[in-house]
């Protein structure tokens, strides 16, 4: 069989074309710009533990008032009765209650205050209560930012008696108010047929 030979001219042209193709720079792949960092979510009092009820069932609310020119605020969850027995049932007597729902109920005061004669320095606190059939106590606790059922007694700043009354009509949704009263305020909590009151004054 006769061997096929390229002519020198054709071989030179073929080699040049091959080298040109190899040396041609390929376009760089399009670079995808780095994603902008997501905006940080709004701060929340506490992360819900697994199995916690949805917050929509107990929306957050805030009671605010000015005391001697300084802000006092209570942030809390507002559960509904929804046909349930509340006092002595959903809220057992003799056990510390989160005083609301979901994340812990938070008290913020921009100045030193007095609650029923007990001095509370300016700052942020968690409010719990200790329910009783005939008397209640307000618990001011130094731990903050936790889920409402996380209670540490060693962090208590004070336990303060609450005046207990009966509401004129059932209150479907748990409510906290800071009502003006003379030179101070009344901290008022209402749910079902129970009304709890504590006077709040500027600390001397």
UniProtKB/TrEMBL annotation:
Residues 1-16 form the signal peptide. Transmembrane segments: none annotated. PROSITE patterns: PROKAR_LIPOPROTEIN. Keywords: Signal. Residues 24-61 are annotated as: Disordered. The keyword DNA damage does not apply. InterPro entries: DUF2911. This is DUF2911 domain-containing protein. It comes from Longimicrobium terrae.
């Amino acid at each position: 069989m006769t061997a096929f030979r390229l002519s020198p001219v054709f071989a030179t042209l073929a080699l040049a074309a091959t080298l040109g193709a190899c040396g041609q720079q390929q376009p760089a792949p399009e670079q995808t710009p780095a994603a902008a960092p997501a905006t940080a979510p709004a701060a929340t009092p506490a992360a819900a533990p697994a199995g916690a009820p949805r917050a929509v069932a107990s929306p957050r609310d805030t009671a605010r008032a000015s005391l001697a020119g300084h802000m006092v605020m209570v942030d809390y969850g507002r559960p509904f009765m929804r046909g349930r027995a509340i006092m002595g049932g959903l809220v057992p007597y003799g056990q510390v209650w989160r005083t609301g729902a979901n994340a812990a109920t938070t008290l913020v005061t921009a100045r030193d205050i007095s609650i029923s004669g007990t001095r509370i320095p300016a700052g942020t606190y968690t409010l719990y209560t200790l329910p009783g059939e005939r008397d209640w106590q307000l618990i001011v606790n130094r731990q903050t930012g936790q889920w409402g059922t996380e209670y540490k007694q060693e962090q208590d700043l004070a336990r303060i008696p609450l005046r207990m009354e009966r509401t004129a009509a059932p209150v479907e949704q748990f409510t906290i108010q800071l009502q003006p009263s003379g030179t101070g305020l009344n901290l008022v909590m209402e749910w079902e047929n129970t009304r709890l009151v504590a006077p709040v004054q500027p600390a001397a």
